[in-house]
Amino acid sequence: MDLVPLHRSEIQVGREAPYDIFDLHGNKLLSKGVLIASESVWERVLERGWRDGGGEGASGARRAEREAPPPPPTVFEKVEAFSGELGLLHDAVVGGRAPDAGAAIHDLAGRVLACFEADQDAMLAALQIGAATDSASSRMLHVCVLAELMTDRLGLDPAMRRAIRAATLSYDLGMHALHAALSIQASGLTGEQQAQLHAHPQLGVDLLRRAGVDDEVWLDSVLSHHERVDGSGYPRGLREPDISQAARVLAIADIYSAMIRPRAYRGAIQAREAMREIFLERGRQVDPELAAGLIKAVGIYPPGSFVRLSCGEVAVVVGRTDNASLPEIRSVVGMEGMPRAVPVARDPQDPLYAIIATLPPSEYRFPMAPVRKLWR
């Protein structure tokens, strides 16, 4: 890739990025087609952004190669683009620059749903692997697909499911100002931060109303996503009979997604342990029916989880099966500890390849490129 700096005329506020934008090291900052929603985003992209110049003196063959249709984006690239778009949309809502936010959020939710329905295991894997490097928008995307799995099992009507999807992509808007600070803060919350935390559900509702959202199921889900069935939640201390089913779906998806993400004061909780804690909290913190439904839908070893096998190999879970304890797996690190260029299928029913432990993100010491190619 031949990187050249961006010129101010190449990107404009309110327009979509005309091509992928990278940092100086070739890491993608923004995907082609993502809206440049604000002046601050425009300035940050100009300050750090580069594009692929392709080389001024490239040969005809090289030019032809560049002009050939690009391959379709992978699920990882789609999730990255969704996350970037959602982050910019949140910036616009918080900044008061999104008068029709409801339509924009519903549109994005529809595209996320289409991607998920095309290959559920692939998207679950991309979001599970992406949890190792947390962001507010990627977490909400994860909550969206987790909620979709639960509402499908519950057989909720389409209008209710549509409102819940929108809520999952906007429920933490009131935390917008706190996210950056808390992601690196190893100490406890200050008194002011504690007050902001307890106020963020109502603030999120206020921001959405200002942006034109009037769907009461959506708004109530945002307001009540930290309520708990035993009355220990906030901001109103509601108990189960007074907490809507939509809010309870959002709450349990958010709890799981938050647990598997690292924090400055703790490492990520492994998926299997997170599911175990949710199971133990059924009837207290979480709805017991939804707890069982989440575990059945996602599995003990969700796609994208890394596991250690009895033979010493490390494998990645590529898909769910009817048996939550026996997922479809591929070995990515051999018995000798060397990463595999091409992952190899293993049968967890074989005692040699039985799953004996899950692997925390801190131990992912192998290339991810071959792993990502397992899903499209």
Low-confidence stretches: 56-66
Number of extended strands? 9
Looking at the structure, the CATH topology of the largest domain is Hypothetical protein af1432
CATH class of the largest domain: Mainly Alpha
Supply Rg: 22 Å
Strand content: 5-15%
Helix content: 40-55%
Termini separation comes to 23 Å
H/E topology pattern:
EEEHEHHHHHHHHHHHHEEEEEH
Second CATH tier, the architecture of the largest domain = Orthogonal Bundle
The best one-word shape is: globular
Count the domains. 3
Counting helices, strands and paired strands, the structural category is alpha+beta
Quickly count the helices.
Answer: 14
Largest sheet: 5 strands, antiparallel
Mean residue pLDDT? 88
CATH superfamily of the largest domain: Hypothetical protein af1432
Widest β-sheet, arrangement of strands? 8-7-6-5-9
